[in-house]
Amino acid sequence: MSEDFGFFIALMLNGVSIGLMYSLIALGFVLVYKATDAINFAQGEFVMMAALVGAVVAGLSGPPVVMAIAAVIATLAVMIGFGFGLERVVLRPLLGRPIVAVIMATIGLAAVLRGLTPIIFGGETRALPLPISDDPITIGPATLPPIQVLGAGVAILLFVCFSWFFKKSRMGVAMRAVADNQQVAQAMGINVERYFALAWAMGGIVAALSGIVWGSMLGVDVQIAVVGLKVFPVVILGGLDSIGGALVGGLIIGIVESLAAGYLDPYVGGGTKDFAPYLLMILVLMFRPYGIFGKRQIERV
Length: 301
Known about the structure:
By secondary structure, the protein is mostly helical. The chain contains twelve helices and two strands; from the N terminus they run H-H-H-H-E-E-H-H-H-H-H-H-H-H. A hairpin with a 2-residue loop joins strand 1 and strand 2. The longest helix is centred in the first third of the chain and has 34 residues, at about 5-35. The radius of gyration is 20 Å and the shape is globular. It starts with a helix and ends in a 14-residue tail after the last helix. The model has no long low-confidence stretch (mean pLDDT about 85).
C-alpha cells in the first residue's frame, strides 16, 4: 500500500467514525420531526445538558466502572424525565397551533438552557471519564480513539433499534400517523398527546447517549452545544424525516470534514472542515430541497 493511499484510507476511516457520532445527534432531530413535524433547535443544548449531568455523576467518588454505569443510568433517567416534562409543560399547550410556534419555543428553550446550565453546574470544563482504554485502536493505516469507536457502535445500535421501531411496531406506525396529520390521527382514536410525549422522551434518550459519548471525547462545558449546530447539515442533507438519511448524511459530512482537513487545511492554514459541510448542504438544497432521502411534499394550489 502506497503512503498516499494509506493516508486517504486513514482519513476515510476517521471520517466514518466521526460521521457516525454526528449521526447519533442527528437521530434526535429526526425522531422529534418524524413524530411531531417540528424541528427541535435545542437538540445541541439537550446534548450539553446530558453531558453535564453525566459528568457530575461520573465525578463522584467511587469505583470508575460503577460511577460510569451510574452516570449513564442517571443521564438517561434525567433526559427521559426532561423530555416528558418539556412536552407536558411547554409544548402540549401548543398542540394544534402552527408548527412555527413549536419551533420558536425550542429556540427559546435553547437560549434558556445555555443561560441556566452555567449557573447550575458552573462554567468550568469537566471531564466525563469512561472505563475504556486510552490506547488508540489501529484499523489498517488508521489509528482511532476508542471513544470514537464506541460512539460509532452506539450510533449503529440505535439506528437499528429505531428503524425497526418505526417500521414494525404499532407505536412507531402510530407516531408516523400523528406526524402526517394530527387531526386525522385523533379521529382514528390515536392519543396524539401521548405520542408527542413519547417522541420527546426518545429524543431525550438519544441526547443522553450523545452527551455521554461527546462529553467523554471533548470535555464538558457550555460550548459542547455547538455540536448541535454542526450536525444540522447532516439532518438537512439526509432528510429531516429519514432515519437512514441521518445515518448516510452523517457519514457523508464526516468524510467531507476529514478529507477537507487532510488535503485542504495544509494549503489554506486550517478551518476548511468547519465550513465544508455547510457548503455541501447548500449545494444539495439547490437540487434536492428535501434532502437525499427526505419525503418530497407536493402541495396543490
